[in-house]
Amino acid sequence: xxxxxxxxxxxxxxxxxxxxxxxxxxxxxxxxxxxxxxxxxxxxxxxxxxxxxxxxxxxxxxxxxxxxxxxxxxxxxxxxxxxxxxxxxxxxxxxxxxxxxxxxxxxxxxxxxxxxxxxxxxxxxxxxxxxxxxxxxxxxxxxxxxxxxxxxxxxxxxxxxxxxxxxxxxxxxxxxxxxxxxxxxxxxxxxxxxxxxxxxxxxxxxxxxxxxxxxxxxxxxxxxxxxxxxxxxxxxxxxxxxxxxxxxxxxxxxxxxxxxxxxxxxxxxxxxxxxxxxxxxxxxxxxxxxxxxxxxxxxxx
Length: 301
Ligand SMILES: Nc1nc2c(ncn2[C@@H]2O[C@H](COP(=O)(O)OP(=O)(O)OP(=O)(O)O)[C@@H](O)[C@H]2O)c(=O)[nH]1
Ligand SMILES: [Mg+2]
Ligand SMILES: [Zn+2]
What we know:
The protein has 301 residues and is of the alpha/beta class. Helices cover 32% and strands 25% of the residues. It has helices at 98-111, 127-139, 153-164, 179-186, 190-201, 240-246, 248-253, 271-278, 283-297; strands spanning 8-16, 19-23, 29-34, 46-52, 55-61, 67-71, 76-81, 85-91, 114-120, 144-146, 168-172, 212-215, 223-226. The strands form three sheets. A six-stranded mixed sheet has the order 10-9-8-11-13-12, sandwiched between helices. Strands 1-2-3-5-4 form a five-stranded mixed barrel. The chain has a two-stranded antiparallel ribbon with strand order 6-7. Helix 6 runs antiparallel to helix 9. It is globular and about 70 Å long. It starts with 7 loop residues before the first strand and ends with a helix. The model has no long low-confidence stretch (mean pLDDT 92). Zinc ion (ZN) binds next to helix 8.
């Protein structure tokens, strides 16, 4: 029980600075402001709030079950909280960055959130290359859902349905992979929702600078959260020694190193390097691990 348990409980469906849209259990949306200066409220948060005239004041944030965020050099960017899973969208074209995919997977793993990979634009001939680049991820246990959201919308939504049913899913992905196409396909009223929210929150037209919550069903059990496309995906919240346990192919090779503080890059008697030599870890994963290790090892200042 929190100190504010007597107050109404609501869910944050959009947030822009100190303007927060809270949805009541009955589905009413109320524009709220957090009490005090601090505003670290994110979409998906469950909040205790109080009515004030035509709006409301948020008094407390309920304890989060999880929070997905990226930590760049200078700032933290929260995507959403209290998620059941993350759908990372990549596509045949433009060629997706395996490093970005890995970063998103690591962030999800570090936050204790299940991740799925959606491969979009499988109607294009370049899909075969993308499939083979994803093969190692299937090998380490990832689920890859093949999609052609624009070319085969009905088949794609049928394929996604069993994964999305009854769950809260954050859609994550670099620019151009098809996030908006996905939202518009599964949430026909999305444009209207965005319009209403941006008007209420006074965000102007560029609402994809923050995440937005959409219900997928009338019973309000399944939800999709749209997030802005990212260029950078910093993992500054993670120490270099935490990396290997968060990468499933590396994690599987741990426990056989001669040195307990092995960095798995050049040490003799390293179990990971042995796995690399056997081909259990691909060269591209090794490259990503090493550059991330260096990045997370350098001091910020
Ligand atoms: N060939 C093909 N193109 C697709 C498919 N799905 C989406 N596209 C195209 O890919 C482009 C990018 O799609 P968006 O949905 O705007 O991508 P986004 O992830 O929202 O991108 P940002 O908003 O920049 O983050 C658009 O021109 C779509 O028409 C598909 O199944 N096949
Ligand atoms: Mg978009
Ligand atoms: Zn090692």
